[in-house]
Every structure is written in structure tokens, then in C-alpha cells.
Amino acid sequence: MKVEFAPRRIPLQRRLQTASVLQWVFSSLCLAQCCIAIFVFLLFTRFWLISAVYAVWWALDWDTPNKGGRRFRCVRNSIVWRYMKDYFPITLVKTAELDPAKNYIFGFHPHGILVAGAFVNFCTEATGFSKLFPGLTSHMMMLNLWFRAPFFRDYLMSGGKQTQKGSLMNWESSEGGRDGDLLKASPNPEGAGDPLGRLTNVALAKWFLLEKNLKGFVRLAIEHGTALVPVFSFGENELFDQVENPKGSWLRWTQQHLQKIMGISLPLFHARGIFQYTFGFMPYRRPIYTVVGKPIQVKKKHNPSQEEVDLLHSRYLEELCKLFEEHKLKYNVPEDMHLTFI
To answer: What is the value of pTM for the model shown?
Structure first.
């Protein structure tokens, strides 16, 4: 295999962009494990008091991810994220006005690997979320598992991330709207989903998304009377190549068993390196356009029937398809390519 190395003379701006993405990839894949290792290691050194004091703080602060988290403006506005945005680059596209006095659930499609578009658009201000949607505050819902790692949990909350339980508690503490809070939710609050279903596979002039049976977010919206907003991120799945894992393969079997144990899917992926373009875990430099659609108004009902959930889910998928069709030609998607849900 011939390795294609990066040129020696690269503008400082591009090197800073690569460095910003490198720290993000490291944070996504390794930071939680490193934080746990540091916490345990310090207990057996003369600096044990650091871990001991943090353990007390952790116990007192345990419920914070369930109560809206703890955002830091300086973290969300960091120049690091602007360099990361320019690496791809990433653009946030607004198509409709959103009332800042209401809550919304954003369904982000496709999920992709590491979800660069969702992170930059909704956990930072690099693409100008607050300017595009004044009065709204974005929160990204994550599995509770990630908030069980010491130190790492504080890093997650600083960007506005919170648990699914936290989102529910925020709604329950308000009457219809909490000063314009916007909650960007993965379209599967029950879990991480299928490792293939979270990716987009282009075949037979169709764009396949496994969203047909993921309806938990719809039930959530009905129970709280929260409007649903479809979001399609063009280019999200062009950042990495995934190792094939067809049904019946040993890799698919391993992923499914790990998902049952850990609650998350672990796809194997690769892309480019830091100093070469042939292999590695750095994403490709490919543009991402995250298009926020029009809100779908939802009537509140405490215990919706399955028929009501199915009806709203069908409407949501229709609006998602409409959003895709209206914008695909702008973002280099062939005209004969359409969304198909499996």
C-alpha cells in the first residue's frame, strides 16, 4: 500500500485546524478512559487528596447532569472549535424561525461516526447557533454512561451536554417552555441504536436510514407537547470509512454483544492520519451542511397510544424526506437519490 504523505509546507492555519480536530478525536475516543485512569492512579500517590476531594465533590454534584448540566460560555466560544469548524468546514443552515418561548426536540440525521456536525453546531458557538436562533439554548442529549467518568463528566457538561433524564426533568419543571430552551436530541432516546443504522449507505440511487422503528423520541415529544424539528446533516457520513460488518459476520456479532453490555455500538472505522492521507482515525476534510428544518407542532398527551405515536412518526419522516429533497441539489447529492427508511 502506497502511503500519501502530507506536504511539508502547510499554512499554519491548516495545522491549527488539524490540531483542533485531533484533540476532539482524542476526547471522543480516549479522554474518558484517561480520566478514569488518572483518578485511580492519584489515589495511590502522594496526590491522593485530589481524587479524594473530587470524589466528595462528585457525590454532591451527582445529579447535575440530570438537572440541565453546567455550561461554560468560554468553553463553547473557544477558538479551538472555530478551527475545527474550518477544518471540514461545517455550516449551520436555518430554514425557519423558532419561537424562543418554546421547547424543541431536534432529530439529527444521519448520526454518523463521532457526530462532528452535531457537536460543532449544538455544543459550540463556532457556527453561530445563538445568532441564528436568538433566545434559544442548545443541549445535546447523551447516554448516562458517559457521565459516570470522573473529570470527563465536567468536560461534557461544559459544552451543554446532559443526560436524557436531565432533559425530561427540565421539561417537567416548566409549563410548556423554559425560557426558550432547545434540546437537540438523538432520534433514539432509548439507546445508541444499530451500528449500521446510524450510518448512511449509498446504494441503488437511494439514501438508506435506519429510523423506521426508532420512535422513542416521538413518544417523548407527545408526552411533553414539544415540537419536533427534523435536521439533516449533508456530508456527515463522508468523514470516515467503516469496516464492513454484514449480518452474520463475527464483527457484527461482537458489536451486538458489546452493545448489550455497554449500551453503545462500537463501529470500526478509519480515514486519514495526521501527517499522511492514507490511513488513521482523523476524519477527511469534507464539507458538512447541517440543515435545520421547520418545526412540527405536537399536541400534548400524557399517555399516547401506539397509533398516535406511529402517526406522528410517519409525519416526521415525511418532513425529513421533504427537507432532504429540497436541499440535496445544493449540497452535491445526485437528483435521482432519495431517502429510504429500513
So the answer is: 0.86
